[in-house]
Design a protein that fits this description.
Length: about 120
Amino acid sequence: MKMENIKSQMRKGVLEYCILNILDKNDAYTSDILKELKEAKMIVVEGTVYPLLTRLKNAGYLGYRWEESSSGPPRKYYLLTDKGREFLKMMDTSWADLVKAVDHISQKNIKANKTQPKL
């Protein structure tokens, strides 16, 4: 498997969590969300983010408001709902558990490699 495919699959798995974290700080327009994801090296395209935002909105985790724009049509700003904040807390716990498990396995592997004799 190519490394780019592996990276892409890993990013897809945490994209929802990243978006909820972005919106936990401030309401955001889709291009602002994309910009922050790209700054964090989470390379995504609008075609990936829009369906995810819709799914999160339909689940009740996100709401939105329209805001007039001086440079074109009104903009839809997404915001985290109370239900979304609760969901994010659960995701925080799941993420911490996952990181702990992966660290445990990788550290165990590192220790095993150090104790094995070199050939």
